[in-house]
Structure to design on (179 residues):
């Protein structure tokens, strides 16, 4: 399912949004390995009115379309359908659909929201990364791909406000360095 970077040219910037542990873990058994209410609020604020692109497993973990956003699910399963979502069978088609929607709706960016395989495929297309860096190492079965720090510049870092018993975390924004 790997794609070359030149298989999709976006009119609207592509961003990726994720919460990950220090060891890059983003999920375990289809769930987040932590509960950080402020991160969920951050996710909602950053994705509101923007088209979302996600894999089928990520969609299944949510269980319903997220409101006020185009929900595009990428799956190889030709039988998959769900009310309130658009289905594409490869990432470039999903990004193209999201790009068309974003252009019509004047959304500022397309948001890729996982899971691990979709992130790996989308990284070459992304211009921005919204990463909640969670200050723990956890066991998990889904990870965020490693990215070359030389290709990205940190443009914002805001410390989270963890509740009692929650790990520390930062909201970090990276932008791709121009070639």
């Amino acid at each position: 399912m790997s794609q070359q970077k030149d298989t999709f040219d976006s009119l609207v910037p592509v961003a990726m949004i994720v919460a990950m542990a220090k060891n890059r873990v983003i999920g375990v058994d289809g769930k987040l390995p932590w509960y950080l209410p402020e991160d969920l609020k951050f996710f909602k604020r950053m994705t509101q009115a923007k088209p979302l692109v996600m894999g089928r497993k990520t969609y299944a973990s949510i269980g319903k379309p997220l409101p006020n956003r185009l929900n595009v699910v990428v799956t190889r399963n030709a039988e998959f359908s769900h009310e309130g979502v658009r289905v594409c069978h490869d990432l470039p088609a999903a990004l193209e659909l999201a790009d068309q929607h974003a252009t019509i709706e004047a959304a500022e960016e397309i948001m890729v929201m996982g899971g691990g395989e979709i992130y790996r495929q989308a990284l070459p297309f992304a211009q921005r990364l919204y990463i909640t860096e969670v200050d723990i190492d956890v066991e998990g079965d889904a990870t965020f791909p490693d990215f070359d720090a030389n290709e990205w510049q940190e443009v914002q870092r805001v410390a989270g406000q963890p509740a009692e018993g929650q790990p520390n975390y930062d909201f970090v924004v990276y932008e791709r360095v121009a070639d």
